[in-house]
Write a structure and sequence with these properties.
The chain is an alpha/beta fold. About 35% of the residues lie in helices and about 15% in strands.
Length: about 475
Amino acid sequence: MTDTPWLGDACSLVDAFRSGERSPKEELEATLAAIDRSELNAFSFLDADEALEAATNADVSRPFGGVPLAIKELESIEGWPSTEASLVFKDRKATFTQTSIERAKAAGCIPFGMTTASEFGGLNVSVTKLNGITGNAWDKTRTAGGSSGGSSSAVAGGLCTLATGGDGGGSIRIPAAFNGLVGMKGTVGRIPRGPNMMVGPMTVLLGCLARSVRDVCRYYDVTTGADERDPYSLPKVDGWERNLGTHQLAGKRIAIIPDLGAAVVRPEVEGAVRDAAEMLAKDAGLEVVGGVEVKVPPLGVEWAMANLATLLADLDGRWPECKDDLTMEMAFGLTLASEHFDLEMAARCEANRSKAFEAMADVFDRVDFLACATNPDVAYPAHITVNTRVGDQKVGIENNGALTIPANITGNPAISVPIGLVNELPVGIQIIARHHADALLLDLAGVVERERPWPLVAAGAPV
């Protein structure tokens, strides 16, 4: 039996299956054993028996043939828990499987368990009443980020090579950067969200947490494409992996604004991001354009409260009786929205959203890419969920969101790429592009990966 899970990327794991270096069953057994030893608290549910049966019969000729796939617990597989990381739904089971997961399974992925997330995906941390605290792969006392924190911790922690994620305000990119992974948020609609999707607030996208750019591309190859149960899903685009590295980048323009004009960014992180962006511009032949300003208006509490409408619908009459089962932050938000959100606030929210569209379009009238930090600092202590200070760090959900939420509001594709360590913890650079320019972002990430390779797993992993 293999002692540890595969510590390369998912694509190389498939190659190892095909060559006979290891088998899908051996890999899954090593994964389950590593999870059992791990102190990261990255998983909330395991389905070992069914997964082992699937691994025994895996078709390794498929794109992800035999690869164990961890599923974020906010997603749905029929018969598995459907808790949404909340005590409110601790006993609920899913009655359907998401389209994107069905497509991943058809490509050979073997779902074997669910990774921890923030309650209802409402915060960019991974602390819940249901599951406790999930640790960062590089330091278990630090936050894994969120809401796809368990997925990022598991992949970076050497427990599995690939995990699903979702991004409504940075929930793929934030934990990817905190854990040293590549995290891609495509153009809105790239991967369908059906069936039974809720349209609002039109900021949520699906994707994966991965160790390499080609893993993201292969995941796009097997999961993207229009679906009737998501009327906003985009038509199929083929060749994400095949065409990686083939697009013309030289001569395109990039603006480097580490704080995106809004966040308080740690000086060492700002310096690392600026240096990485300038090196990328040189490596890819990009023209650095100065004097660009990002004037996306802060949407503030009005936008946050408007988003709670989908949560209220999800609770389906349980509110406010379920208040004590919710985390403090979610209960506070629902109380505030119930008491203060009105038509005037909704109008301000929509007006500011329109201004945000125009502001981002103004940026891309001048440049092709916008580079900034993914997170304003390295991972902070894992138990923290609200805005505060820890020593010289300004930490919490609002400051983090200032860097990632704008691309969700406007629907632009954005990718986070590892660029090194500050205080022995990972730092990511975020690159944003025009709508539908996803392939160019993946090519830029590929340049960083080729010229300045990042560790595929955390130091000491699996832990």
